[in-house]
Amino acid sequence: MEDSQKPDLMDKIVSLCKRRGFVFQSSEIYGGLRSAYDYGPMGAELKRNLMSEWWRFMVHSREDVVGIDASIIMRPEVWQSSGHLANFSDPLVDCKVCGERFRADKAPRKAEGEDAPITLGDKGRAKAAQEKLTEAGVKLQRDGTTLNGAKAGAAGYVCPNCGSPFLSDERRFNLMFRTSLGPVDPIGDVVDIVRKAMAEGADDKALRAKVEGALAASSVYLRPETAQAMFVQFLNVQQSLSLKVPFGIAQMGKSFRNEVTAEHFIFRSCEFEQMECEYFVPPGEGPKYLDYWMNERMKWWRSIGIKVDNLRFRKHDDDELAHYSDGCYDVEYKFPWGWDELEGIASRTDFDLKAHAAGSGKKLTYFDPEAVDPDTGKPGRHYVPHVVEPAAGATRGVLAALCDAYDEEPADAEGKGARTVLRLHPRLSPIKVGVLPLVKKDGMPEVARKVVEAFFGAGVNAKYDEQHAIGRRYARHDEVGTPYCLTVDTQTLQDETVTIRYRDDRRQERIKIADAVDTVRKALTETT
To answer: Are 453 and 504 in contact (CB under 8 A)?
Structure first.
């Protein structure tokens, strides 16, 4: 696809996703829910296929990684020990002009003292904003819908909605979703506490502390990441399978973050899926395995068809690293809006296991009978393993696959042949093969359905399709990324052959019906 198509690529993908059943707005008939999406028939298959490929690569193709499926809700002490309750928050800011609430670290930035024009939706809003600022002692000149004369402050950021530098102070906003677990509704206790505190003249800080205390007994959180369960279950997994370090624990599943800034369709949303692995290594070997997993993970993204030119590593600067990390890289993809994170690969040292050991009072160590204890010089060593964490976004992976595969082919000299096609890796494609009777008579539908049943029996997802003209059916399958289409026609009834059409180059050839399943299955197996 030409670069000139890039600016509107996201609009085209969003449109395609709804039109062809990949992604819908959640609760759409009620007006939708911001930052929540439902995966339709094609999207559910695409996401499942991508996650299955990850599981096959990370777990089923090696001996040193095993998988778990942990609960979404865990004891709140887990999040206390991990630091999420205290530190998992964003700097939240309100615009004093338009009221937009946003994350300071994601806002546009200007140099201190640089012009910061404020643009409102219409002249009436601009006039009202000008009057409001004048009352506050700020005089600006209005030019239609724009207020001129404002300057960026020391922090540099401005409102992403209107461009205003007049903002509230930053305040921390915890990203975890809190709910209550247990048979008693805590709201009644909160009401009683508030009523009593107000009668006693408690200030806001004291009142908040009392309310938090009332909620604490039943509060639990939806997990903001899948990683912590793998640390908490480290000892159970290691001992139950007698695993030797180095080894990894992998998990895929839902995570939840109360994002203030939801952006770029499904790229950043409140509910998403992750694919993470915690790989436990001997102390001091984190950097070596960081390099190893960087190579492995880049190899995987390329193996599912993501173009090499659209992938890169970005090393975290020292001021980006967590205090316990000794190295971190992002796998970035070149999305339509620019380079952004697909996966983080971090060397986390021994921070996580030590934090949970301290919080729980349980020893989370590993005994290696063959290693020499550096303190005694004798065989046999107890130690807390270090961890390298490859953590990928499944939801972001789906979006990257869609962006990477989307293509538009122009019409030929006669104005024919234009099409939109998703060049998905065949193993990611929601439908592997479409089976199309040329017409809905003369026994062709019956033969086509038998072919479909043969694919179902072989475990290959096939789709019987008889609606509309054959050209429209081909176009429909091109748009959902079906790599192969088989057409049952008059010749089929004579010699038991079908036409196989290849999505990417539209090439067609005749093959025996008896060979159809093996032909498609071999093509899927050989594709790299």
So the answer is: no
426 contacts 315 by C-beta, under 8 angstroms: no
Q: How far apart are CA 278 and CA 208, in angstroms?
A: 37
Could you tell me which residues are beta bridge partners of residue 502?
A: 484
**Secondary structure string (H, E, C) spanning 141-153:** EEECCEEECCECC
- As a whole number of angstroms, the distance between CA 389 and CA 249 comes to 10
Helix axes 513-526, 444-457, angle to 10 degrees: 40
CB distance 122 to 281 below 8 Å: no
What are the Cα distances from residue 151, in Å, to 104, 140, 142?
17, 10, 15
Give CA separation, 528 vs 107, 195, 330, 375, 421, in Å.
40, 66, 23, 49, 20
| C-alpha 407: how far from chain center | 22
Side chain identity, residue 242: S
CA 177 to chain centre: 18
pTM summary value: 0.84
* Element containing residue 358 per DSSP (H, E): helix 351-360
Query: Per-residue pLDDT tens for 115-165?
Result: 999 999 888 888 889 998 998 889 999 999 999 999 998 888 899 889 999
What tens digit of pLDDT does each residue of 418-431 get? 999 999 999 999 99
